[in-house]
């Protein structure tokens, strides 16, 4: 252990290292040995912080899920017309995704091999359902095109938003100015076509 | 080899087996042994058809790429206003993706570790650029919202379309009736919002 650095990790900073490794190697492909190497501390030091890699996964996806579900409790997601609430939630989903990029990336890659992964998938589905419910309400208000099916539209909108993790870089040219969230909201709610 | 079935494969039917295995295990995670087991014929029988797994990958992604580039040569993609051509290409992309689901899925998962993968990535980028060019033309015609940036819109629209491979099942309720392509076109070009 002479090469190991002193363990100065907090629960959050150790989690950040673990999430990076999970995203690089896949959760299944990550061993405690990989985590120990990436963190530069011994496995027993890691066990001092957490019970194992599944606890790290649970904490990481919980962080993403808490942020996402938190959106639904915000004032603008709770009051007003359904279509406005849906627009607000769409914008905030993009903001959470970019602000919590590694955590949401990990959440979106969860496959369901362990109890924690199955729990995360279940929570994701519940979030999707709540957003679909908003879309259904907006449709019932006559504020969504009648020729678009709610379940299909929900999948496609989530598909667009979730695909952002594949290319977004926090330090890139799309970062920070809210243009990405604006563009998603415009595409989803008003479509591409201009006056022409 | 007593348990192996007689080799009655055609190049296409062997390719279909290989693509299924590549999509399940990942291309990197697939050995000739895996392909031999899945096909139920010996490795030497496979080598009778192809030089190895990289040739199978190249044939599989070529099939997806040929179908995608083929769209751009179709009459409706070549004549008329740019925004109409773009709408046509969008619809046909969804149709190709669902008709050639395993091949397009494999193409979208290519990462770039081998020469064939890097070539496939390069061809994908070229296709993306051609679609982006159409979007730029439509914007120059004043038929695309001025407050949406072309590069970002292209990424988001591709993100929506490509996400379909994650959940679409050829025998499911979304199959066959063109509703999926209609919905994508409506969302992308007109947005969700109805008259309200």
Automatic annotation (TrEMBL), chains A, B:
Q: Name one GO molecular function term.
A: transcription cis-regulatory region binding
Q: What SUPFAM superfamilies has UniProt attached to this entry?
A: Homeodomain-like (SSF46689), Tetracyclin repressor-like, C-terminal domain (SSF48498)
Taxonomic superkingdom:
Bacteria
Q: Where is the signal peptide?
A: none
Tell me any Pfam family this protein matches.
TetR_C_24
The cross-references to InterPro entries, in alphabetical order and at most eight, read: Homeodomain-like_sf (IPR009057), HTH-type_TetR-like_transc_reg (IPR050109), HTH_TetR (IPR001647), KstR2_TetR_C (IPR041490), Tet_transcr_reg_TetR-rel_C_sf (IPR036271)
Q: Which residues bind DNA?
A: 31-50
Keywords from the UniProt entry: DNA-binding, Transcription, Transcription regulation
Give start and end of each HTH tetR-type domain.
8-68
Report what the protein is called. Answer: TetR family transcriptional regulator
Organism encoding this protein = Streptomyces sulfonofaciens
